[in-house]
Design brief:
590 residues; ABC transporter transmembrane region fold; Rossmann fold; 19 helices; transmembrane
Length: 590
Amino acid sequence: MEVAQSVQKFKTFWKVYLWCLSYLFPYKKIFVLFLCLSMFSSVIPLIISKMFQHFIDHILPTKNLNNFNLLIVGIICIYIFMLLANAKKNKIGIEFQEKASRDIQLSVFKKVRDLGFSYYEQHPVGKTISLFTQEIPVVQGMLRYFIPVILESSCELLLSFIFLMTINYKLTLLFIPCMFIYYLSGPYFERKAISYKEQYSKLVTEVDKKQYDSLSAVLELRVYGTEKWDLKNLINIAQESSRIFSRFFFFMDMYAVMRRVAIYIGVVILLLVGYSLVRAGSLTIGEFVTFILLFYQIMFKLTVVMTQINKQKMNVVNATRLYEFINLSPHVKDPDNPVKLKDVKGKIELKRISFGYNSDNVVLTDIDLVINPGERICIVGSSGCGKSTLSKLLARFYDPLDGVITLDDTPINKLSLKELRDTIGYVFQEPYLFGTTITENIRISKPDATIDEVIQAAKAANAHSFITDLPSGYDTFIGEKGSRLSGGQKQRISIARVFLKNPQIIIFDEATSSLDNLTETKVNNAINTLLDGKTVISIAHRLSTIRKYNKIVVMDKGKIIETGTYENLMAINGRFRQMVDGRELNNDEV
């Protein structure tokens, strides 16, 4: 069992690592040039070492000034070449590293968009934000630093080792057994460190989520006086993450200690054996000095490579969640060859629709409904009966488990998501406003709209008068989530968006249920102007407005149980009549 788990972890590691490397593939030409320049830069220190050996063994004993001058000139020329090569290498290195880093961030943004509505309903926002604050920087660090450093150091390490073998292969092979000291103990400490790193990464995500929740719920926490309770929960998670991080560093330090022990033992053996070889005449002083210098260089580069490799292993652990996120498959996908509707009339038909957020929890069952172009229908029913879920299916936020939804006799899953959603306008109970100007908030529905179009949409939504009363009019910053506006003002901004978009189908999802009577009247005036000639689907409007609809659809436990006009439904003395007479919903709502 443990072997199988180890094999699976190994496979997962390489999948994630190769996925990280894949962001370098589009820039493989400059990447290869970077490697070539790295190898060139690695050869130069070896040439300098060889010249140093020549200086000790030949120039210094003979005191030949001409050869010494030539040596100095040669070293200067080599250093100039090295500086030029390093400058070029660094320039192209930055180019492909930054482009690859940009690509990973854009791919995550794109995936967030592609996953759609279902992902956001099932995953906390704080957890998604942690991808950008924790996982993306880790992968970017690999692309910007770890991978280039490992490749460059590995090239230098390999060439240095080959050069040492040419000096004295027996002496070179002597310090290799010392590395076994490190490899016999190092992997244990490495595994422990990775284990704690995994735990720490999960706790950091929880901390991010908790911080987001605390900031988002600051009003509720103050109202109920539970700030200390919330702070205590946050401190508990933070303390546990700190404890785990301390354990991680302990094992990383032990890992480093064993590496140093191996190096120090190698130095002692090298000095003892090297001294004997020099005394025996099988090794010159210049070769021995050069060997020592290159040994330390190799040990340094080996330490760099091993340290970076181990850090990369830790980073791959962090990158695994990002890899899994990138490979999530969206529940709703664009068709390969979407059908295009030339002129949308607004006819909607639902044929035997069944839906559940999972197979064990069916929300809608055998829904049949026809909505003709320009028809206004109202869907009513008790809380949880499936009204809002039905509206989400119409814009393909979800796909039904069974059945077909058509728009103008074309299945909506054959339309592109953009065309379908351009056809539909939503007015939610609690619209989301961005922390920018009113103009930009209205323009969300049509980014290329002119300021005149924005103003006309605001006038139609009965919002122009309150906007012009604001300090900077349409350029007023309204605060995060529109905190400087009232509920009715936010709703009219939302309706202005729909006016600007001018869709053929409009869905109101309890758009006025939380408003007071005066504000509701103003919002309804704006809505009535908007509805002319449109297909309208409204959810849970008040009795005062429900009479105006052509058709009322009554739902109960995920099924349509009654359909008809207000008068017809009242006459049959069924569920709708019971709701009206019993006033089941607050504030005279049905």
